[in-house]
Known about the structure:
With 143 residues, the protein is mostly helical. It has one domain. 68% of the residues lie in helices and 0% in strands. It has five helices and no strands. Helix 2 runs antiparallel to helix 3. The longest helix has 28 residues, at 95-122. It is globular. Mean pLDDT is 78; it is low at 9-16 and 122-143. Keywords: Signal. Residues 1-18 form the signal peptide.
Amino acid sequence: MRPALIITIALAATPVLAQERPPEMRGTLTSLTRVLGEAHALRQACEGREDQYWRSRMSRLMETEQPDPAFEAQLKDGFNAGFAEAKRLHPVCGDDARQAMALAAVRGREIAGKLAHAKYRVSVLPPLPEVEQEGVTAEPLPR
């Protein structure tokens, strides 16, 4: 599955307003914004600074969630921290940056699954089955 599609799925899995989410899901959303920041830095490394694909997805997430000011700052901090870390580790496009993009996509998919499961539990629907992606193994990025 392409990284863009995976994190787009994550955004589609978050229609519940941040204020309505259980407190433990706020951390999951913050993790998602960090992955979006990483993806933004990595894509810019490979596609150029003018590429705003993942930044625009972050903006869409903020519009969808409508977080209170304190949580909005936390989400933005997550995005910025992910961006800064990925830019520091992968300042130019290469095989390592492409591998990091693939790993970010895997993490984004995992987070999307958590958010989707939480959403459906809140609305008393049965949980979604786990979906495995064949042939994908991922180690976390060094922190």
